[in-house]
Amino acid sequence: MYDSKSKKAEEFISDEEILDTIAYAKENRGNKELIQEILQQAESFKGLNHRQVAILLECVEAQDQEVLQEVHRIAMKIKEHIYGNRIVFFAPLYLANYCVNSCRYCGYHHSNCEMVRKKLSQEEIKKEVIALQDMGHKRLALETGEDPVNIPIEYVLDSIKTIYSIKHKNGAIRRVNVNIAATTVENYKKLKEAGIGTYILFQETYNKKTYEYMHPAGPKHNYAYHTEAMDRAMTAGIDDVGIGVLYGLYDWKYDTIGMMLHVKHLEDTFGVGPHTISLPRMRFASDVELQDYQNVPDEIFNNIVAVLRCAVPYTGMIISTRESKENRKELLRLGISQLSGGSSTGVGGYADRADGVEESEDTAQFQVDDVRSLDEIMNELCRTGYIPSFCTACYREGRTGDRFMSLAKAGQICNVCQPNALMTLKEYAIDYASEETRKYAEEVIQNEIPRIKNEKIRAKTIENLKEIENGKRDFRF
Ligand code: SF4
Ligand code: SF4
Fold first, then answer.
1. CB burial class (10 A; 0-12, 13-18, 19+) of residue 155?
2. How far is the CA of 139 from the centre of ligand 2 (A)?
3. Ligand 2 atom nearest 414 alpha carbon
4. By CB atoms within 10 Å of each CB, which of 3, 273, 302, 386 scores lowest?
């Protein structure tokens, strides 16, 4: 029985409701009036429910170009209205790749004998963080496998402390998001106390049968425990949670609708939906055969992104370096608001790179596609009209959870996003950019200052930019 407010995974992610929704969308294929109504609702920034999303996904499947053009137009309008041309950057930091789970799609799975297992010491974490700071990163997503013996929660907490404590030259990591296995309310409380930003956990797939097949052994096999993790995290006081499915494991329509049910469950239960949605697609990994998966082609994947932008206008959407540089460009247009850049998916990869050691694949979780350096990505974005941002202001100002959402929904958040983006871009330009990227970044800053609508904020931003030139750092609204 479907119940969005239930505490039980199989009731708030009801298989029956998802299948009924898919059938309902099939029955309404080509229902122009209904589609029109949905598009109008999306265009007024009100978001969509899972049934409305299913109708649009049906149009994706039918390749209804007329509707898809409209979906793209509206997605781009929402993106422009809420996020402008700002793109927030982060980098993953892999602490350890020990794992007791057996996820079939992941190179870290327990029985992968080819994988070289590694766990960074606090000294090694320092080196990684310095290398990341020297690239210009301010926001990290911590990644580990699940292994209570080798990677206890205390290790993760110590690592967070280490990361926040390092100040190399003008560098600092100002927000640590955490992507670790589903855990207890008690442990989530500890993470909250450690000052994490977003707690991220991908559902992988919402289809229970496939979920259990993909996770044949280990604690992650428990579908309910995994699916209810965000409830425990939010009960523990973590306001910002990030969800996602791994496209390629199961039917993309089923999983997108499942994800919408998860959004609704969190909204109905905690008054606020997920802070972010990540959109990873299957990639080649050690001891993983890609042909065993249902690859979602670009044209469908990009349309899913556009539909989701229409459905959850105020939720940040994240694409990693799993995607090619060409497709990332297209996805930015359609609604993505956060990117990783210059990423290493191995344990200790950043320090190796900084030392000039060729990055080895033997500890990597998966193969990245966009292998450009952060500076190359920044260069391209600045040249093509985007404002790359290293902003971490909201969580540091206590704008999290429903406080953040109400500001976002009132259209006020962009008043701070824009100047924060320019000030962090200025820091990047001075401290880390190549000469050419610095030139383009300065052009972006000069072009964008007059676009700050609030006069007082504009004046303060100009003042702060001068202070940054004079050597001061870390201004924020
Ligand atoms: Fe372990 Fe996570 Fe990989 Fe599964 S996806 S094998 S839990 S690291
Ligand atoms: Fe994100 Fe808040 Fe910074 Fe805007 S001001 S980019 S919402 S952290």
1. middle
2. 12
3. 4
4. 3
Ligand minimally distant from the alpha carbon of residue 408: 2
Secondary structure class of 411 (helix, strand, coil): coil
Q: What is the Cα–Cα distance from 120 to 123, expressed in whole angstroms?
A: 8
Nearest ligand (C-alpha, residue 180): 1
Per CATH, is 85-251+274-301+317-371 categorized as 3.20.20.70? yes
First to last CA, the chain: 46
Ligand 1 atom nearest the C-alpha of 215 is 4
Write down how long the chain is.
477
- The ligand placed nearest to the CA atom of residue 174 is 2
The DSSP output letter for 178 is: E
12 neighbors 6 (Cβ within 8 angstroms): yes
Q: Which of 22, 61, 28, 30 is nearest to 301 (CA)?
A: 61
d(CA 288, CA 286): 6
Under DSSP, is residue 246 helix (H, G, I), strand (E, B) or coil? coil
CA–CA dist 60, 299 (Å, integer):
9
What per-residue confidence (pLDDT) applies to 414? 87
Cβ atoms 96, 150 nearer than 8 A: yes
Pocket test for ligand 2, best of 414, 420, 477 (most atoms within 8 A of CB): 420
Residue with tokens 């991908």: 202
DSSP-assigned states of every residue in 265-303 = HHHHHHS---SEEE--B----TT--GGGS----HHHHHH
Residue among 187, 96, 197 at smallest CA distance from 140:
197
Q: Which residues line ligand 2 (CB under 6 A)?
A: 88, 389, 391-394, 413, 416-417, 420
CA-closest residue to ligand 1 atom 5: 106
Residue 47 Cβ < 6 Å to ligand 1: no
CA angle (205, 211, 217) in 5-degree steps: 140
C-alpha 201 to ligand 2 mean position (Å): 21
Q: Which two tokens stand for residue 108?
A: 């870290």
pLDDT of res. 291: 86
Q: Where are the domains of the chain?
A: 85-251+274-301+317-371, 393-469
CB under 8 Å to 113, separation ≥6 — which residues? none
Q: What is the pLDDT at residue 292?
A: 87
| Residue 145 · residue 108 · CB < 8 Å | yes
- Write out residues in the chain with pLDDT < 70, as ranges: none
